[in-house]
Amino acid sequence: MARILYLTQIEIDHGARRCLPEECQRVGMKKPLVVTDPGVRAAGVLDMALAALGDLPHAVFDQTPSNPTEAGVRAALAIYRAQGCDGLIAVGGGSSIDLAKGLAILAAHQGPVDGALKTYATIEGGSPRIPDTVPPLIAVPTTAGTGSEVARGAIVIVDDGRKLGFHSWHLMPKAAILDPELTLGLPAWLTAATGMDAIAHCLETFMAPAVNPPADGIALDGLARGWAHIERATTHGGDRDARWAMMSASMQGAMAFQKGLGCVHSLSHSLGGVNPKLHHGTLNAMFLPAVVLFNAPAEAIQKEQRLQRMAHAIGIGSCDAKGTELAEAIRALNARLGLPSGLRAMGVTEDLFERVIDGAMADHCHKTNPRIATRDDYRAMLATSM
């Protein structure tokens, strides 16, 4: 089994879930609340994780929505407090892990919790308000996409309808247990959509202008690993090597995006808030080509030859200064994976544009893009992505 100490403790291997009791003991967790969703339970994956816990007392919240909400956080908090839990184990995709992070914030909150979560949001200046008294969290991802298991942030739809980011090193899971066996039964469409989320993280963080060479190196390796294995994982779900590689690519994307993301995520976060039924990873895949083309003229992109380096990582050899080949390669990969041809195929219509642009302009990823987008720029990216 590989143990990685970077940002947090990471166990990655087939069967890594068997480390759960050891990790609970290490972080002082005597009665965790296991946070998951109905799909994970129905697929039998939750049973695999609970079996690994052995006789450790625990409670379960299994109603995480596909996009975590403040109402869902409060429902889980009620169980956490009623059952006398002292820590959290998130078993699921990014939604379950992010809901658990939101729960950790409210568990440490003093006073009434209704509507309280937004006061901790990054764009509300809330990061310093997140205390170090949040309960410990162990993350067990069941998809290879968000990388939330090694991220200090969470995305939650708060009571006023906004899809907001919450960021603090206190939210970093105390352990990330990456067991590719938990992803072997993942449906092909979800494998593709979550895999493109991981690839988007690697691509977008590599384009972000902040100076962070280690993050750049991790992003490039994660990009190459994800691009080389996503089709095998999608079409041959039982391919253990491909599943391991995608789980690593997902982790690496999130390790790297501590550096920052950009317009892909500004748009995805906003549109996902307008219509929570839309899958975040699929939205990222739809926006990537347009954002690559928009970012191409940025000084940081041209000076560091970032388009060419990304092209090399995915094996297309070269890319012009406009990013054309890279954008086309992403579109072609989306097509091969069976993802939608564009936003219109997902049910998005032009009448939503202004609401989406409002959210994108206010998103925490807006200012970390290599080019700061205007409303007109966002409108053009939306139109190109239709």
Commentary on this structure:
- It is a single chain.
- The chain is of the alpha/beta class and 386 residues long.
- It folds into two domains: 181 residues, Rossmann fold (3-Layer(aba) Sandwich), CATH 3.40.50; 201 residues, Dehydroquinate synthase-like - alpha domain (Dehydroquinate synthase-like, alpha domain).
- Helices cover 48% and strands 11% of the residues.
- It contains 15 helices and nine strands.
- Strands 1-2-9-6-5-3-4 form a seven-stranded mixed sheet, with helices on both faces.
- Helix 5 links the parallel strand 5 and strand 6.
- The longest helix is centred in the middle third of the chain and has 23 residues.
- The model has no long low-confidence stretch (mean pLDDT 94).
- InterPro entries: ADH_Fe/GldA, ADH_Fe_C, ADH_Fe_CS, Alcohol_dehydrogenase_Fe.
- Keywords: NAD, Oxidoreductase.
- GO terms for molecular function: alcohol dehydrogenase (NAD+) activity; metal ion binding.
- This is Iron-containing alcohol dehydrogenase.
- Belongs to the iron-containing alcohol dehydrogenase family.
